[in-house]
Design a protein that fits this description.
By secondary structure, the protein is an alpha+beta fold. It has 2 helices and 3 strands. Strand 1 and strand 2 form a beta hairpin. The chain is globular, with a radius of gyration of 10 Å.
Length: about 60
């Protein structure tokens, strides 16, 4: 999945950008009180996308 599509999905489900790290971007879901790092790669593997969505307690993106 493209990184920009994942970011759009996260923000569409109420997640907020927190800060940029050296190799990752930190996002938080304030309703569920959960946060996770999103790697800064153009393509993010499907397994990583699933793990990010589970960590933030949001639905998986449609294919």
């Amino acid at each position: 999945m493209k990184r920009r599509d994942l970011i759009r999905h996260l923000e569409g489900h109420g997640c907020e950008f927190v800060r940029e790290g050296k190799e990752h971007t930190l996002y938080i879901n304030r309703q569920m009180k959960r946060s996770t790092a999103v790697p800064r790669h153009r393509e993010i593997p499907e397994g990583t996308v699933r793990a990010i969505c589970r960590a933030l307690a949001i639905a998986l993106p449609a294919k």
